[in-house]
Amino acid sequence: MTFDEYIANQRANLSQGLPVSFDRVANVVVCIITGTKAYTGETLSAHCGRSHTAGRIFGRLLMPPIDAMFRWQIALEARKPPEQQIRDKDGNLITSHCLRAFEKESRLMYHPPEYRMYLPTELR
Q1: CA-CA-CA-CA torsion for 88, 90, 91, 93, nearest 10 degrees?
Q2: Angle ∠(60,22,104) on CA atoms, nearest 5
Q3: How many CB atoms lie within 10 A of CB 50?
Q4: Tens digit of pLDDT for each residue in 89-114?
């Protein structure tokens, strides 16, 4: 790897990692204010998706505005090849940002490949 490739890689990591870090901090702050349980490394979006799946009010209240802010991601997701799309257990494309974030967290997609190697092949 050349130095220029290294710098480009670091910039890409920073541009992706910094917003996710702020999202995780926001999740902790919201959890402190609302008294809900936060998990290590969980984003606010994934927390809303998890809460909504469990039928909790936290997810039902916060998921719609968060989904509305990230509505543009649905069109991008639909353009990806089918094997790269995030789908539910029935094979349907997940069109909610929060539910997609929850699914990605459950598949450890935000973690390096070394963490995912112990998951069953269909979840990687």
Answers
A1: -50
A2: 55
A3: 21
A4: 888 888 899 998 888 887 776 666 67
DSSP 26-51: HHHHHHHHHT----TT--HHHHHHHH
Report the Cα–Cα distance between both ends of the chain, in Å, rounded: 27
- With vertex at residue 79, the alpha carbon angle to CA 70 and CA 42, rounded to the nearest 5 degrees, is 40
- pLDDT the model gives residue 64: 94
pLDDT in tens, 42-64: 889 999 999 999 999 988 999 99
The predicted model scores a pTM of 0.73
Other Cβ atoms closer than 10 A to 56 = 14
**pLDDT attached to residue 2:** 81
Report the SS3 class of residue 87. Answer: strand
